[in-house]
Design a protein that fits this description.
Layout (H helix, E strand, L loop, with lengths): L14 H22 L24 E5 L5 E3 L9 H11 L7 E5 L5 H13 L5 E4 L7
Parallel strand pairs: 1-3, 3-4
Antiparallel strand pairs: 1-2
Helix pairs in contact: 2-3
């Protein structure tokens, strides 16, 4: 009997190891993804009444100010920005004249930091601000 391997090579890809590697990579990304999605921890001031405000639209910008003065824009995953960088970034992303800035400032943030930020934004031509507060009491 003659064997079938008369000089021809078997050129089919073995898919099992490929699938194993892909599953390992999937698990690695699933485990590390939450590390990149950490929220900025802010302790917003609490008010007694339920203040209703409009939700930000795609043209609006959300500014986070932490208790130590660090500022972040729209995302919870970037490095903190200086006041000048914040103003420049908001100006470059404002596509409409009536774009609003939603400011989430920690209740332990310096009043002067918030006022300086508002003044710098106003001087740059951005005049619609929303100061966001918390209506839920956390214990």
């Amino acid at each position: 009997m003659k064997s079938r391997s008369c000089g021809k090579t078997f050129s089919e890809i073995n898919a099992i190891p490929l699938i194993d590697v892909l599953l390992v990579l999937l698990v690695i990304f699933m485990v590390t993804a939450p590390l990149y999605l950490q929220e900025i921890q802010l302790d917003l001031p609490i008010v007694d009444h339920t203040a209703s405000y409009a939700e930000p639209t795609e043209h609006d910008t959300t500014l986070f100010i932490k208790h130590n003065g660090e500022m972040y824009i729209n995302t919870k995953n970037q490095k903190s920005l200086s006041l000048k960088e914040v103003v420049t970034t908001i100006q470059s992303t404002a596509t409409k004249q009536h774009a609003s800035v939603y400011i989430h400032a920690d209740k332990n943030c310096s009043y002067g930091t918030v006022i300086k930020t508002l003044a710098a934004l106003e001087q740059s031509g951005i005049t619609q601000f929303h100061l966001v507060n918390s209506t839920e009491q956390t214990i």
